[in-house]
Amino acid sequence: MMTTVRFAPSPTGHIHIGNSRTALFNWLFAKKSDGKFILRFDDTDTERSRAEYADAIAADLQWLGITPDRIERQSSRVESYDTAAQKLKDAGLLYACYETPDELERRRSRARALGRPPVYDRAGLKLTDDERAALEAEGRRPHWRFVLPNHDGDPFTTRRTEVSWTDLCRGDQSVDLASLSDPVLIREDGSYLYTLPSIVDDIDMGVTHVIRGEDHVANTGVQVAIFEALGAPAPVFAHHNLLTTRDGEGLSKRKGALSIGSLRDAGLEPMSVASLAVLTGTSHSVEPMAEMAKLAEAFDLASVSRSSAKFDPEELNGLNARLVHEMPFADVEGRLANLGIAGGETFWLAVRGNCVKVSDAQIYWQVVVGPIESLVEDEDRDFLVTASKLLPEGDITQDSWGAWTSAVKAETGRKGKGLFMPLRKALTGLGHGPDMKDMLPLIGRQNIRDRLP
């Protein structure tokens, strides 16, 4: 059977770097297994789901280098969920409940006060047809719960029921179904919660591996039970650690924390984002991978740590800079042209080592073409007048800087920072930057003359 995975975001906001971790884990696993990647929008929440968010998520994944083999929308598959729900109802595994949220909370509070676990008591199962009719006559509408298989025929006498699986990230795992409430699968308004559509889709689409965040571990036992109730084997599960900030703060799609779109707009490279998202919280060092194929080589679910994956957002700039410093001109030629930079390969090779982002090249292109604010200190003015007179004749080449500064040193006695820094500030308007031997030919004789007193 072909390895098939899925990434199933809710189109209720923009995905962030933490979401991209799950998407990339699935994508890389599929690529290493010569399998398929499905992008499946969980858009059954009609009030919050937006088409523009779905489009943005697809664009963000494309920017990261993820090209789905198939795109599905749960909103177009409701008939399949209705069929599955009816199958569970016919089997007596899906039952109507009429409690309000306030009533359920009061029951949970009483259970806690009595030292009992706040597990639903299956009161809905005890209702007679007449009682259900009376409740509906009051205007109540049912929500529907799935009967967990944690009993020996009498659902009101539960027993310890372990559901176990071997997790590709966490090793052997188990959940006791007797410790859980029967899950609600259908809301009062008839809409589906995430669980049933996800399972039906996984069955119908042949999903073989479910790779997701560790916050879903507790749900897995319930989902395995529903797979079995629908007559299908459960997929293989892998629950990875979640990406958090250095302070342990979780990321929120609603807050837009470190959204992929904002990182793209900030000028970061997709592979710096992907490298951090994938390698943080694993046994691998976080290194910038220039290509997805290289990242796939380093990717291994077994290397994922059990502890949280903390990262410092500032790491992105460091990773990005390392990628940019090695980028060949062919990879950035079009982007530089779009920025109005016409310096060609010579310019790029001269400045890339000082760029954190490709767009930083604009700073140095301005240095080349001007105008700039030449920084001339009063105490350096006479020194720069002398330097101007000693500028070598002929073409300005990479050798010109060394010959020029040697002549200036011999004439003025200055050396080190006192020699080089006034010249750099006067010619570039900056106190730092690319090697002046590379910049001098780009700046050119006329600009050199114009910027010196």
Automatic annotation (TrEMBL):
Q: Write down what this protein is called.
A: Glutamate--tRNA ligase
Q: Which gene encodes it?
A: gltX
Motif 'KMSKS' region: positions: 250-254
Organism annotation: Roseibium hamelinense
Q: Report the family membership.
A: Belongs to the class-I aminoacyl-tRNA synthetase family. Glutamate--tRNA ligase type 1 subfamily.
- Which PANTHER family does the entry link to? GLUTAMATE--TRNA LIGASE, GLUTAMATE--TRNA LIGASE, MITOCHONDRIAL-RELATED
Keyword set includes RNA-binding: no
Which parts of the sequence form the motif 'HIGH' region?
A: 9-19
Where would I find the Aminoacyl-tRNA synthetase class I anticodon-binding domain in this sequence?
378-452
User: What Enzyme Commission number(s) apply to this enzyme?
Assistant: 6.1.1.17
Q: Where is the Glutamyl/glutaminyl-tRNA synthetase class Ib catalytic domain?
A: 4-317
Protein purpose: Catalyzes the attachment of glutamate to tRNA(Glu) in a two-step reaction: glutamate is first activated by ATP to form Glu-AMP and then transferred to the acceptor end of tRNA(Glu).
Where is the protein situated, by its record's location annotation? Cytoplasm
Q: Which Gene3D superfamilies match?
A: 1.10.10.350, HUPs
- Which keywords has UniProt assigned to this entry? Aminoacyl-tRNA synthetase, ATP-binding, Cytoplasm, Ligase, Nucleotide-binding, Protein biosynthesis
Q: Which InterPro entries match?
A: aa-tRNA-synth_I_cd-bd, aa-tRNA-synth_I_codon-bd_sub2, aa-tRNA-synth_I_CS, aa_tRNA-synth_I_cd-bd_sf, Glu-tRNA-ligase_bac/mito, Glu/Gln-tRNA-synth, Glu/Gln-tRNA-synth_Ib_cat-dom, GluQ/Sye
- GO terms, molecular function: ATP binding; glutamate-tRNA ligase activity; tRNA binding; zinc ion binding
Top-level class of the enzyme under EC nomenclature: ligase
- Kindly give the CDD domains that the UniProt entry links to this protein: GluRS_core
Subunit and interaction comment: Monomer.
Question: Which residues does the record give as ATP binding sites?
Answer: 253
- Biological processes per GO annotation: glutamyl-tRNA aminoacylation
UniProt xrefs under PROSITE patterns: AA_TRNA_LIGASE_I
One matching Pfam family, short form? Answer: Anticodon_2
User: Could you name the Gene Ontology cellular component terms for this entry?
Assistant: cytoplasm
Q: Which reaction does it catalyse?
A: tRNA(Glu) + L-glutamate + ATP = L-glutamyl-tRNA(Glu) + AMP + diphosphate
